[in-house]
Design goal:
Elements: H1 8-20, H2 23-30, H3 34-48, E1 53-56, E2 59-62, H4 64-89, E3 96-102, H5 104-109, H6 111-121, E4 125-131, H7 136-139, E5 145-148, E6 157-172, H8 173-179, E7 193-196, H9 199-208, E8 218-222, H10 225-233, E9 239-242, H11 243-246, E10 252-254, E11 261-271, H12 278-291
Parallel strand pairs: 3-4, 3-5, 7-8
Antiparallel strand pairs: 1-2, 5-11, 6-9, 6-10, 6-11
Helix pairs in contact: 1-2, 1-3, 1-4, 2-3, 4-12
Length: 292
Amino acid sequence: MDLQQTDWNHLRAFLATAEQGSLSAAARALGLTQPTLSRQIGALETTLDLMLFERNGRTLTLTDTGRELLRHARDMGGAATRLSLSASGQRSGLGGVVRITASDVTSVYELPRIVRDIRLRAPQITVEVIASNDIENLMQRDADIAVRNVRPEHPNLVARLLREKSGYFYASTSYLEARGRPKTLEDLKQHDWIALGPVPRMHGHMTGIGIPIAPENFRIISENGVAAWEMCKAGLGISPMDAEVAAIPPQLERILPEHLHVTYPVWLVTHREIHTSPRIRLVFDLLAERLS
């Protein structure tokens, strides 16, 4: 077999079928007819002299060989997507401003490296970052694209679920050495907590996930997630944070990670009418690639 001569369309057909789970769904995703897709997969199997799928009626199941090839096909698919996005970014006529709104934590700790990539790939685009938790930014046209942790319900918004993220509760090593490391959930009542926003709302969230603390445990309050996180790093109490962000500073420790663990979605949202704008669509796709 000669992998150098393998037709990318055949690999793309294999990748779509493996990920969609059926020929019909893959054909819809690629805009092909089902017989055409089936012929492309058959041609790939002939070229490689390998059986990639086991066929049982209308059901296709990846063989062990197919699962191994899928890993490499995904790498190639990602490279093709990056090439396409880079080429799109160099086209003329893409100049202008794209406004991205995200939470203060995402804006500070995640967006800078992503915006740098957007600027490298699409130098004609100017990016405005709006640090806000308000989904109304899109409805009021104050922003073009939003990164949010809840799915918007408004019918004029287009949303794509990118991934699930994990969060834990943290305190600085200096705080824990001074106040002691909690061993049980009951021990948490003896500690200071940092509220992200109004105490009644934060207290409701905490008790809702089984943390038995009182409103009086919240000794620091801030609507700004970055400010609250800096308070935590300074040794002023316990605070929740995204696990990837919290991995950056070395002086923090997870609190009872076997008990205190939350997951939450990352949604990328834009307005239905402007989703077809080449400039906004390019930035939307770049954000989807990096945030995924």
